[in-house]
Design goal:
The protein is built from two helices and no strands. The chain has helices spanning about 25-35, 45-60. The two termini are about 25 Å apart. About 5% of the residues are buried.
Length: about 70
């Protein structure tokens, strides 16, 4: 996300001034919460959601904190 909005890459705004990020909203929301909370997130019980969350972290190049275990 940092690289996306750093100015190094052109990114198009919508007419409303918003940016459109074509990702699954529920999982992307978990990534945003993870970043907002200092790379911590509550345990994810659902296996599909947990795997999707890990895939989303990988997509964005976000590595979990060394001591942080995401179940």
């Amino acid at each position: 996300l940092e690289a996306m909005f750093s100015g190094r890459h052109p990114i198009k705004k919508l007419d409303s001034g918003e940016y459109f990020i074509d990702r699954a909203p529920h999982i992307f929301g978990l990534v945003l919460e993870y970043l907002r909370n200092g790379c911590r997130i509550a345990q994810i019980e659902d296996n599909f959601i947990r795997q999707s969350f890990h895939m989303e972290l990988d997509y964005w190049g976000i590595e979990p904190m060394r001591n942080e275990k995401i179940n």
